[in-house]
Write a structure and sequence with these properties.
CATH topology of the largest domain: Rossmann fold
Radius of gyration: 21 Å
Order of helices and strands: HHEHEEHHEHEEEHEEEHEHEHEH
Number of helices: 11
Distance between the termini: 50 Å
Structural class: alpha/beta
Largest sheet: 13 strands, mixed
Shape: globular
CATH superfamily of the largest domain: P-loop containing nucleotide triphosphate hydrolases
Helix content: 25-40%
CATH architecture of the largest domain: 3-Layer(aba) Sandwich
Number of domains: 3
CATH class of the largest domain: Alpha Beta
Strand content: 15-25%
Number of strands: 13
Length: about 350
């Protein structure tokens, strides 16, 4: 309970007097963190620390907040674009919660070689949804990148969640920002859920606003004006999260199945409210909302709790969460698949190519 309360404080979900006191106590540590980070980055500027340059271009996908901005579905879309243009990408990712030392080959050009328990939920989902794109998990992306260049001969490396991975040189940095909460709680860790200050957006070459389906055009215009000092308008893009498939025990079902249905929804993702809001836009009546920690390793007891709360109602979860259930059985379970829909794809492809070739 205490950890969940602190999480809500950090993410700005709790705004009462007690949460303000907790945040005030944490703010000095945020200042220390920013000071230490600034000094650490200066070591690179002064030449006292060196970044590794891989043998192929590196496209970094990242953000400045914790939580679900849409990096993983964007990486999937980006790799599909690269494949369509005859470019062979390899994805390097950390793999949240993975304790294995060394590089895990989640998939190669032909097969998926590791499951969600071994590699993490997001790398496993990427491997399943991107046939022909190798996915490698390693905390040391220099090591996995060097292995990939030697053994897989890619044309380009896609660095997933790599904005704060300082040790690699990057040719293009794409920042994904949740349009609903672009700066999270507005405070830098540990007082808030920002990984860096807003000024760090100066490192962005391209900026993509996700969850644009949940905000107005006027709001997006104001947000773009605020961020124009970091990124030119020509390098800003909008994207929406679009539900595309609902799968139950008997296979794929039309999305209209959820209309006017009472459902219990559970998830362990960075932005759970976006999932619940999507279900409501599909016409479902979300009677029960169960939020687990991001990247949750589910147990039979967790699913028994879900079943008890659902009390016979339809249960809906995300594709990412379903990957962690393995052989666990949940009655009336449906999985909602959501895709990243980027507006003005041709302009994005053009800007990406220009940044890659300099």
């Amino acid at each position: 309970m205490i950890l969940r309360y602190l999480e809500k404080v950090v993410c700005g979900e709790e705004m009462n007097f007690g949460s303000k006191v907790v945040r005030a106590l944490l703010l000095p540590f945020s200042w220390l963190y920013l000071g230490g980070l600034g000094f650490y980055l200066k070591l690179y500027d002064w030449g006292l620390k060196k970044r590794t340059r891989l043998g192929v271009p590196v496209i970094c996908v990242g953000n400045i907040t914790f939580g679900g901005t849409g990096k993983t579905p964007f990486v999937r879309m980006l790799c599909e674009f690269l494949q369509k243009n005859g470019v062979r990408p390899v994805v390097l990712t950390r793999g949240h919660g993975v304790k294995h030392e060394g590089t895990i080959i989640v998939s190669d050009y032909e097969n998926v070689l590791a499951n969600a328990g071994q590699a993490g939920d997001e790398p496993y989902l990427l491997a399943k949804s991107l046939p022909g794109v190798p996915i490698l998990v390693d905390r040391d992306r220099r090591r996995s990148g060097a292995w990939a260049c030697e053994n897989l001969k890619p044309d380009v490396i896609v660095l997933d969640d790599g904005m704060q991975y300082w040790q690699l040189e990057k040719d293009v940095t794409v920042v994904i920002m949740d349009a609903v909460r672009p700066f999270g709680s507005g405070y830098v860790m540990p007082a808030g859920d920002m990984r860096e200050s807003e000024k760090s957006l100066e490192r962005a070459d391209l900026m993509v606003f996700s969850h644009c389906e949940s905000v107005t055009n006027d709001y997006l215009i104001d947000l773009a004006k605020r961020l124009n000092k970091y990124v030119d308008y020509d390098n800003m893009f909008c994207a929406s999260h679009i539900p595309v498939k609902l799968t139950g025990e008997e296979g794929e079902t039309d999305l209209s199945f959820l209309r006017d249905k009472d459902v219990t929804a559970f998830c362990g993702i960075g932005n759970p409210n976006s999932f619940f809001d999507t279900l409501e836009r599909l016409g479902a009546r979300v009677c029960g909302r169960i939020i687990f920690s991001d990247h949750m390793d589910y147990t039979e007891a967790d699913m028994a709790d879900v079943e008890h709360i659902a009390a016979g109602r339809i249960v809906v979860t995300t594709e990412k969460d379903a990957a962690k259930l393995e052989d666990m059985y949940v009655p009336n379970l449906y999985v909602l698949d959501i895709e990243f829909d980027l507006e003005d794809e041709e302009r994005f492809e053009d800007r990406l190519k220009k940044h890659l070739v300099g």
